Every structure is written in structure tokens, then in C-alpha cells.
């Protein structure tokens, strides 16, 4: 019965773009040197690595020596939060973040709490937005770091980080943003945003898994993440994955070139999808109605389990997710959805579609044809099957 496969889970990861794939395979066929060596193969790899660093930097308005390669977004998030807290510990031990961050940030903050730091979580409104006013209220003498994401992976809400970064700058507090969902999708310039640190991950914009980066403003000396050789200016030892880094760069430049067109196309599809899904009874949009990522359409449905819906959609050729991909498998309702004030039972019925380059209008038709059927099926089953439901 499966006629069509619709991949609508781009917020979890994206397919690798043709251009990135080509650049990587060509590089791997020709080059095998270790960038730390002296001979010509090594130097060719070193040159490719430094060229990639330069290009990543210029794509986000940074300087070359401010880019630190990591292997994924979680690693960069961990490094930023724990590293910044470490260098500032004599000044203070209070860190502020938001209640809708990716687990890489929340778990890093919780780790800091165990080390004696105090963590404040900014509340969000019904749309998932944290306010500058609440940041102002939480700011203290001993606040040393604020980390607020640029856009949310589950509900797509874009945070007012320019204003937050400005407030931090005025108070001499370090500001980090997890921009994994925005780099390659919306304009990102570290100087316009005035952030001190920023996380990006290649596989969220058409690059391969295995390459990501942390921007760290010049002058901020994060402690080494991995002790070892002199790689990444002595801060992250280990032989670099040059091919993957090259793939990330190519994908980023490609995404930036096509950004305004992709933005228009995705928004149009997203809005049609939202409108169509909201015509299903008991369907609610989660996240901000306007200030949201161009490809993000996320919902919560009365009377269904998001996991069952995602599985049933998959059977019908539609790949979507429920809550955060990272917490799937656990029965806890998404912390993001509950932070927006959605009751826990409704939060269990969340389904997220995240659109990307490969999607077209027929994909939207396909989703709109199947989603109402799936919801109806699950609701008709639910009095019989209580599986996965938590006690209230
Ligand atoms: C995917 C994601 C991460 C984690 O990136 P990985 O490369 O999967 O480790 C962090 N933050 C946000 C907002 C994300 O969407």
C-alpha cells in the first residue's frame, strides 16, 4: 500500500546534499593525510581543514580562529556550557538557560548543578517564547553565563536572542546560543547577534553526521574539551574528520545561497500543512504561530498517543516524529511542550513535521490525506488500548 515516502523529520537530521556528498567522496579518494603531519599529504589535509574553517567563519560573520570543530551539536553545546562555567567560576556560579532547551544544554546545566552551580530556567509563554524581561529578572551579581537557543527543535519557536545577548553584554555575562536549528535555514551573523558562543551542526542543513562547530568569540579561553594533540588550537585533541567538515562547509554555503528561495517555499508548504491539520477536530498547533522556523509544523492532538501516530504515519510512508527525537522511547511528556503550559495528557499526543529541501506540495497532500485517518483510527482504538498512557 505504500506508494510514496515523505521524509518530514528534517529537524532530527537532513539527507546529505549531492554537492556535499560529491565534495566528501572526491576529497576522501584523493586525500588521506593526517592534518597534524609534516609531509605533503598531511599538509594537503591541513590546508583543506583550514580552508574549511575560513569558509565556515565567513558564513556566520566570524573570524577563522573563532571556529572550533566538534563532531556533533551536543558536543559543542556541552563544551560551551561547561567550559564557560569553568572559566568564570571565580566570578560566580549562577547560570541561566531556558526551560525549552535541547537535552544537550539541560543535561549540561544539571551536571553543573551537581558541581555546586545554581541554574535558573527561564519560563516560556504558551507559544514557547522566553522573554527578555524574565531574563532581566533572573540576572544576578553572580550570573556568569546565559544559554538560550535560537530556535526550538520541537516546536520551531524563535527566541529573541538579539535582545538577550545585548542584555548579557551590558551586564558582562557570557551568552551562548544553540543555533543548530537556524544555521543554514535563517540568516545567522555572530556580530549582528552579538553572541559570545554559538553551536551549529552540519547534519541539520544537508551536511553529514560527524561534523559540527562551536563559535567562540576571540578572547574567551574555553578550557580544553579533549586533552591530546594540538588540534583545534590545543583545545580538542584528536585527528580531525576533514571530509565531513568539508561536507558541512559545502552544505552550508549551498544552504545560504538558496536560503531566501527555500524560506519562501517552505513557509508556503508549512502554512498549508498547518491550516489543513488544524481542520482536524482536536488538533492544536504547538509553538509560535508566526515566529517559528520556516519548515516547522508541530501539533498536539486530543485523545491520541504521539508515538502510535508516528508509527502509523510511518506505515503510510510518512516519517515524522513525536516530541523530541532524543526522548522518544521514554514515556515522559516532552519538557518543551509541558513548559508551554500544555497539559501532560495532550503533550503525549504530539506530532512534529519538519520540512526540508526534498519536500514538495504532493508531500503535503499526502500528509493531509493520511493524518485525519490516523487520528480517527487511534481515537477509535483508544478506549480499548491504554498502552503507554501515564496515570494522571
Ligand atoms: C539536533 C540538535 C542538537 C544536537 O545536535 P547533534 O548533532 O544531534 O548532537 C542540539 N540542539 C538542537 C536545537 C538540535 O536541534
Features:
three-stranded antiparallel beta sheet; 392 residues; disordered C terminus; alpha/beta; Aspartate Aminotransferase, domain 2; Aspartate Aminotransferase, domain 1; binds pyridoxal-5'-phosphate; 13% strand; 14 helices
Task: Put the structure in a nutshell.
By secondary structure, this protein is an alpha/beta fold. The protein is built from 14 helices and twelve strands. 41% of the residues lie in helices and 13% in strands.
Q: How is the secondary structure organized here?
A:
Blueprint: E1 6-7, H1 18-30, H2 40-59, E2 67-70, H3 73-87, E3 94-98, H4 103-114, E4 118-122, H5 132-138, E5 143-147, H6 161-170, E6 174-178, H7 190-193, E7 197-201, E8 212-216, H8 231-234, H9 242-257, H10 259-278, E9 283-285, E10 296-301, H11 306-315, E11 318-319, H12 335-339, H13 344-347, E12 350-354, H14 361-381
Helix pairs in contact: 1-9, 2-9, 3-4, 10-14, 11-14
Account of the protein in words:
It is a single chain. Helices cover about 40% and strands about 15% of the residues. With about 400 residues, it is an alpha/beta fold. The protein has a 7-stranded mixed beta sheet with strand order 2-8-7-6-5-3-4, with helices on both faces. It has a 3-stranded antiparallel beta sheet with strand order 9-10-12. Strands 1-11 form a two-stranded parallel sheet. The radius of gyration is 21 Å and the shape is globular. The chain is built from 14 helices and 12 strands. The protein has helices spanning about 20-30, 40-60, 75-85, 105-115, 130-140, 160-170, 190-195, 230-235, 240-255, 260-280, 305-315, 335-340, 345, 360-380, and strands spanning about 5, 65-70, 95-100, 120, 145, 175-180, 195-200, 210-215, 285, 295-300, 320, 350-355. Helix 3 runs parallel beside helix 4 (about 105-115), helix 10 (about 260-280) packs parallel to helix 14 (about 360-380) and helix 11 crosses helix 14. The protein has 2 domains: about 5-15 and about 260-380, Aspartate Aminotransferase, domain 1, CATH 3.90.1150; about 20-255, Aspartate Aminotransferase, domain 2. The model is unreliable at about 385-390 (pLDDT under 50). The longest helix is centred in the last third of the chain and has 21 residues, at about 360-380. Pyridoxal-5'-phosphate binds near residues 11, 72, 181, 204 and 212. Pyridoxal-5'-phosphate binds near residues 73 and 104.
Amino acid at each position: 500500500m505504500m506508494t510514496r515516502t515523505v521524509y518530514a523529520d528534517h529537524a532530527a537530521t537532513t539527507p546529505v546534499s549531492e554537492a556535499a556528498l560529491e565534495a566528501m567522496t572526491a576529497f576522501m579518494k584523493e586525500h588521506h593525510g593526517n592534518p597534524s603531519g609534516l609531509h605533503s599529504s598531511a599538509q594537503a589535509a591541513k590546508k583543506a581543514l583550514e580552508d574549511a574553517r575560513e569558509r565556515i567563519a565567513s558564513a556566520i560573520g566570524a573570524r577563522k580562529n573563532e571556529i572550533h570543530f566538534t563532531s556533533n551539536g551536543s558536543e559543542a553545546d556541552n563544551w560551551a556550557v561547561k567550559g564557560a562555567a569553568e572559566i568564570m567560576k571565580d566570578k560566580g556560579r549562577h547560570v541561566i538557560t531556558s526551560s525549552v532547551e535541547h537535552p544537550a544544554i539541560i543535561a549540561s546545566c544539571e551536571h553543573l548543578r551537581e558541581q555546586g552551580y545554581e541554574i535558573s530556567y527561564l519560563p516560556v509563554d504558551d507559544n514557547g517564547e522566553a522573554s527578555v524581561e524574565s531574563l532581566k529578572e533572573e540576572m544576578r551579581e553572580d550570573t556568569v553565563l546565559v544559554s538560550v537557543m535560537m530556535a526550538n527543535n520541537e516546536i520551531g519557536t524563535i527566541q529573541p536572542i538579539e535582545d538577550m545577548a545585548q542584555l548579557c553584554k551590558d551586564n558582562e555575562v557570557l551568552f551562548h546560543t544553540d543555533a543548530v536549528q537556524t544555521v543554514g535555514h535563517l540568516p545567522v551573523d555572530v556580530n549582528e547577534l552579538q553572541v559570545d558562543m554559538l553551536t551549529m551542526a552540519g547534519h541539520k542543513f544537508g551536511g553529514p553526521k560527524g561534523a559540527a562547530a562551536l563559535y567562540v568569540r576571540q578572547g574567551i579561553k574555553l578550557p580544553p574539551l579533549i586533552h591530546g594533540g594540538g588540534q583545534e588550537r590545543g583545545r580538542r585533541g584528536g585527528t580531525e574528520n576533514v571530509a565531513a567538515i568539508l561536507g558541512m562547509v559545502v552544505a552550508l554555503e549551498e544552504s545560504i545561497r538558496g536560503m531566501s528561495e527555500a524560506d519562501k517555499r517552505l513557509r508556503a508548504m508549512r502554512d498549508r500543512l498547518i491550516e489543513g491539520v488544524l481542520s482536524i477536530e482536536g488538533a492544536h498547533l504547538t509553538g509560535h504561530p508566526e515566529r517559528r522556523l520556516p519548515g516547522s509544523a508541530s501539533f498536539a492532538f486530543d485523545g491520541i498517543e504521539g508515538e502510535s501516530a508516528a508509527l502509523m504515519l510511518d506505515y503510510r510512508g510518512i516519517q515524522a516524529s513525536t516530541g523530541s527525537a532524543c526522548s522518544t522511547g521514554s514515556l515522559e511528556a516532552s519538557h518543551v511542550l509541558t513548559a508551554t503550559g500544555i497539559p501532560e495528557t495532550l503533550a503525549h499526543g504530539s506530532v512534529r513535521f519538519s520540512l526540508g529541501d526534498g519536500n514538495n506540495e504532493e508531500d503535503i497532500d499526502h500528509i493531509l490525506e493520511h493524518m485525519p485517518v490516523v487520528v480517527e483510527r487511534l481515537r477509535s482504538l483508544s478506549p480499548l488500548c491504554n498502552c503507554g498512557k501515564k496515570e494522571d
